[in-house]
Amino acid sequence: MPEPLFDYEACLLACARGEQQALRQLYEQDCARLLGVAKRIARDTALAEDIVHEAFINIWNGAGGFDPRRGSARGWVYSVTRHLALNVMRKKGREVALSDEHEQTLAADPSTEHFEYRARSGKVYQCLEHLEPSRRSCILHAYVDGLSHSEIAQKLGTPLGTVKAWIKRSLAALRECMA
Amino acid sequence: MTPEELNDLAGEYVLGTLAAEQRLHVQQRLEHDAPLRAAVEAWEQRLLPLTELAEPVAPSPYLWRRIERSLGHHAVGDTPPVPWWNLLALWRGLAGAGLLASLVLASLLLTRPAAINPTAYVVVLTAPQSQAPGWVIQASNDQQIQLIPLGVMQIPADKALEFWTKGDDWQGPVSLGLVKPGQSLSIPLDKLPPLAPNQLFEMTLEGPNGSPTGKPTGPIQAIGRAVKVI
User: pTM (2 decimals)?
Assistant: First the structure.
């Protein structure tokens, strides 16, 4: 749950003014959660710490450029961390994955066919509930685990084209549901 | 690009399913493409609650220090290291040492004026008949004298030279011990009254163990009086 008591916007403004204590407070407030997010995507604690390390440097250096009219301060902090992790994993994946078509023929792991999650309060969870479970899994594997299209296809034992189409339609459905 | 396509691209970017090249492309476009940026930010807000599905992971104790080091920050809560030129203790210590040194030097200056002059007294010891100089005595203070031979005096083998001194107001001469011909000696005078002008120094020929009476008994071989050097 977001901590309503912590003022992320004021924290970023203080960071922009060069107040080191503000970055420390943000670290104490969110480091474990940010590290959790990074580790789910990076699948390695040391790599996740590298990502969070870089994220805090980017947050400190980018705090001055943060515009509160364009989105929440808390969202920005998480986006910086997530996208760093995704950049790392996509770059790695490009080196590893030879061909999408190859991967879709690999055997699926039935034990992880569906993403295990319990719905929480919040609009996005209500809207996810409306999706068919396999499609919901696609979205969650992508967002939370940072899996690529082909990795999701492999994981769910579903053809790559189907996964791509499911994700595209699910995103459209989510956007409509949350509008 | 239609608004629909823009939204799809933004959604897949935030979801994370774009390939590395496409991600890079979007990130470059975000710098200047306001509609794409707005679409991405809307997706960030929509999906942000899903970050709660990742279990928090406790960071290692080194992570924060690493971040601080990378940013060149000092440890929060610690006082920043003071550059040496701002160390109060250093300057206090140096000022104290300087004051102490000046006091020591001033006290030396006031209490030991003789030390300034390398030679305060000189005595030339000459043979009584020929007046040939045989020894020189130098005293840089009134507590110690240097006996310097000017040649090797010939004395009988069964005799010894005994060195004496006597101030003007003393009862009699005091022995400063036996001296070998040609020997250079440093003799303390700390048991005697301070060296004074006109103080007598002499060498007498005595038995091998010195004067049996404690007073000069043999012939004088060399004699001279202390002269204060200006």
Answer: 0.59
